[in-house]
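Notebook p. 47: complex prediction with farnesyl diphosphate.
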Amino acid sequence: MNNSQREKELKQKIDAEKVPRHIAIIMDGNGRWALEKGLPRQEGHRQGVETVRDIVRCANELGISILTLFAFSTENWQRPAWEVNYLMSLPEKYFQSELPELKRNNVQIRLIGDAARLPRKVRQAVEEGTEATRDNTGMILNFALNYGSRSEILRAVKLLVDDVTSGTIKGEINEKTFSSYLYTVDMPDPDLLIRTSGEKRISNFLLWQLAYSELWFTSVFWPDFSRVDLMEAVHDYQLRRRRFGKL
Ligand code: FPP
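Predicted complex, structure tokens below:
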């Protein structure tokens, strides 16, 4: 069966009423994809951006409400400077080419992560994207940039302590209160986490928010991840029974 036949089949199988509300993706394997082809690692990342474009479109068509993409972790600064610089050039390029379509498709762009440590041109590009799509009411597209879950949790604890000390918060502190101090403040937790490239790790991504998410791993490298792969993941998700600790 070729890809377009499989896509057609999956479209029929997927229940449009029960798609995951929030999908989070660890986009992994750009480097290995390039290595396998004898190309420089940058080529893997460049192709990875093409995949981002396709997957954002497909998620939007499927009616996903929130798509969160792990684009750069707090640990990724440890890569060689040439690779960090290349990765930092991608948001600007992506928004330059995609912003008109994202606006048309009613997509809202958001950033999760420590924006303060991002180079100014990245911050500006993302700010421009978030600003230009602020009034959109469709799919939320979260870019996790300079994101690390442990530092997000620590930041939340510090902000919470400040608010308790100053008396801004009174009464019980529950899970809902705590969640409101995370970058994902007004968003439901991911229903489905996808990780490409065969690795089966969470890698400091959304540790609090993934508590009850369904996990889906594929050996496909991110640059080869296709609409069909996303639809396979959504279909598989729909076959699962989520119990949230209950019977
Ligand atoms: C992991 O592959 C991927 C990254 C660290 C970067 C992911 C970024 C993109 C896919 C592009 C982001 C796009 C925008 C628009 C911001 P890896 O390099 O760790 O691969 P490897 O494990 O095979 O070496």
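Notes: The mean pLDDT is 97. The chain has one domain: 19-148+190-239.
Next step: compare against the earlier run before touching the bench.
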